Prior knowledge:
Blueprint lengths: L1 H13 L3 H9 L6 H11 L8 H18 L7 H23 L6 H27 L13 H13 L6 H15 L2 H21 L4 H21 L1 H7 L1 H12 L5 H15 L33 H9 L1 H25 L2 H16 L5 H4 L1 H19 L1 H7 L6
Amino acid sequence: MKNKIFLFSIGLFSFSSFLSYFFVRLLHMPCMVEIFAIPLLYYYRNTLRIPQKDLIGVILFIILGIFVGLLNPVYTFTDILPIARCFMLGAIGFIIAKRNNVFNNIDNLYIFCFGVFVGDLINAFLLMHSVLNAEHDKEYAVDINIVFSVLWVILTILYKKDKYLILVFTLVPLLSFISVSRGVSTFFLTGIILAFMLKLRKRPSKIVLITAFLSISYITLSTVYINSEDTVRRLSPSMHFRMYKKVQTIGQNDADYGRFAPYMWAANNITYYIVPRGFLGKKFLNDSKGENTPLMAPWDSTYMELLYTFGLFLVVTFIFIYLYKLHSCYILYICTGEIIFAVSSTMLTLLFFEYLFTYGLIRSPFTVISNAGVLGFIWRITNEPGSASQYFTNSNN
């Protein structure tokens, strides 16, 4: 019991967006995920293994990325340092998850992810409360740790019994509503659909139950959404704008165009990305015509950030490896029936598309380390399928 409370607390305080609220909103400091990750490292101090060659590789990678990034005269060392830190956190998270079995059973992983989800829920509520009680209505959106929060939802669908679906039905719409983000809502919805599709792959007899659940959920939530519009408009015009106006004009407003603009620029200037350009900085520039420049293009897209940093050929290689791991997870699930491979298949599919229009690596250090940890974990279990069957069972499903 103490172990589960500890893991829940680590998820809530160390890896959810509540950490960002604590540091950024209350202390007016950068989001120091490293400080609150120390208890987790201490807890596993006797079992964690980080090979020296991996640490040396991380150090050399960071030095090289900074050096190449500084070849761009626009950036200074202090401009590049935040993204270098994010890459360092990501590399360490990947190594720890790849080299170690951090969660020795699926229940521990589940309670940790639930802690992250609750932390995101608390952060979204606190931020909404502070904004709605401010003198002037201000537009805002909540950046949550979408990786572990949606992982909790996927684990609930694929691993827990059907009675737990009431938690998904209740808490996911609540977080989606108070986060005031179309991206968060879309990400959760896509994750839920993918998880149910894989659940049906192994249990086609549940198609009636799942169809009924999804239909009732859709009708109920749509009714609540439509009937709440006037209330939301009175409560906060900015919230109404994000939750209703932007949804109704999806693909037609400037913000949506801005998400596609970097890809359009890259397609017309692909030779710019042939050569790796190292870590980018926080400065984003416009040319005289107001069009995206190479410095601005990485914004709002993980793929564009990686394309700028590593160059076209390395990114294409990464994508092929990623897709190969996705295929491996799906085949292993079909062959073994292990839930963890179904979860991994869902997460890899979801993240592959989520990387198109995210805030990328610069915005959320806790999201970077979470992404890397999930990828490192999946890398390990696909290389050593026996480790998955040893630690993860279907006993609770």
